[in-house]
Structure prediction request, 369 residues.
Amino acid sequence: MPATSHRCYDAVVVGARPAGAATGMLLARAGLRVLIVDRSQYGADTMSTHALMRAGVLQLARWGLLDRLITAGTPPVRHATFYVGSDRTTIPIKPANGVDALYAPRRTILDPILADAAADAGAEIHHGVTVKGLQYDSSGRVTGVIGHDRSGRPVAARARITVGADGMGSRVAHWVGAPTDHMGVAAGAVAYGYWPGLPTDGYEWYFRPGAAAGAIPTNHGLTCVFAATTRDRFRRDLTRDPATGFRHLLAAAAPELAGRLADASPAGPLRRFPGRPGHLRRAAGPGWALVGDAGYYKDPSPPTASPTRCATPNCSPAPSPPRSQVTTATRQPHFPATRPLATVSRSRCSGSPTPSPPTPGTPCKSAHC
Ligand SMILES: Cc1cc2nc3c(=O)[nH]c(=O)nc-3n(C[C@H](O)[C@H](O)[C@H](O)COP(=O)(O)OP(=O)(O)OC[C@H]3O[C@@H](n4cnc5c(N)ncnc54)[C@H](O)[C@@H]3O)c2cc1C
Prediction:
């Protein structure tokens, strides 16, 4: 990314994973001039157990991206089976709205698909750029970002709106002082790994008091198996000897699944997430907005997850709003604080009535640039 402070965009998005890439893609498709930056490498892995529910798959289908996921060899999931104590219930995925299966793509596959779609839509996207702070005008309105590229060279960009899509520990939220409107009281901890050659019948979810587990078929013939518990138990049992602690926890949550894995080893080390309470931050202010986990993070762990989290495989989001109202990415609820982004898409940075392909580096005539 050229180190210039003269560039101006309608929107600069910090973070190029699901929330940032999807938001940038939608804004670019609406004709806005968009810059997306991320400090990570293109295609780098990140923490996730990958299971997309119907809402996420439906969004990918609406955006014309589901075929790319399928072409990448992501296996279809046609059933979800819930084991609650000794009860077992299998729910087939109901074909509706062009979605007849769920998918659990590796993030090394999903995130580049979204980043590529943003670039295809005309967004300028740069990995290896770390944002270190924001720019402000004399009224205190956010007018852009400053940071550096991989070689340490300073970079800066100005925009009418700066979007923090920088994850649960959002620095953008911190810099703008976004208040936390709601804070979760519990946090579940998760450990997971990838097992080759483990046959599963779609998603498998297991729930027992204080412990939960799941099996999620993903790419490359691997099944992601997770075990989740309270933070206290996680600290006690999965810190010193994670492999043994994981097997004990899996046996407590899902004895049948643990039995199937008794003689198998995971491909690579276990990954561990120690848990973090959920938050709902104020998601917009003068010149800034938050999307994805930056604004709204829900504890993903079944033992403590909010009852509002929908694990039901056939739940759908509301129909797509008009493009001018599209505010955010796959997991953000429609709450009023996100609406100001819509005003940006109605009055573009260039002032041109007809969206034209963005020209990188073109000076902007907006009062905020
Ligand atoms: C253990 C675990 C399991 C999960 N399992 C599932 C699951 O099965 N299904 C599901 O749907 N969700 C799951 N999630 C949730 C899911 O991973 C997140 O909701 C999702 O990644 C959020 O996307 P995002 O784009 O908001 O943020 P992130 O994916 O966190 O991306 C934020 C990006 O911002 C970049 N960034 C941060 N700060 C800066 C900066 N200063 N400058 C430049 N770039 C910056 C980071 O490099 C990162 O790439 C899980 C989460 C965890 C922790």
Remarks:
- The chain has two domains: 8-50+106-184+277-346, 188-273.
- Residues 14-15, 17-20, 37-40, 46-52, 56, 130-131, 165-167, 171, 190, 273, 292-294, 300, 331 surround flavin-adenine dinucleotide (CB under 6 Å).
- The first helix runs from residue 18 to 29.
